[in-house]
Amino acid sequence: MVTIKDIEIYPVSDLATAKASPWASVSIIVRVVTGDGQVGYGEAVPTLRVNQVVKAIEEVRRFMVGKDPFRIEYLFREWYKHEFYISRSFEAATAYSAVDIALHDLLGKYLGAPIYQFLGGLVNERIKVYANGWYSDCVTPDDFARRAKEVVSMALRP
Q: Is the pTM of this model over 0.90?
């Protein structure tokens, strides 16, 4: 039986150079590693609560190591009981969602199928684009105008 060997945590921050929106310049990448060496990746967007979310991911790791990574819904229910008094906090939900994404990534790799197949299959041939964080280096109105035009031009590509 495959089990979770470790959950590695990688905070990624560009706060030193962030100008207009430092909360959009931080991410935490999690890497779930199984006993047979497979890996799945997930991401948490902690706004500015990086340390708190890292601590919450460490708690998820403590809970999950040794468990079957393919019992995704079961793991969520068990974790929810484990974290019964704070499971709906921003930090706990953000931490668990990053690991949940990584578990789905692992499952997709093992089964050789894209994650959307597990979530009901293909629905739309095309989707509308939503851009977020595109203004992270913008300060002046000209900065915003320039970046907005760049982002719109990316969305218009086939």
A: no
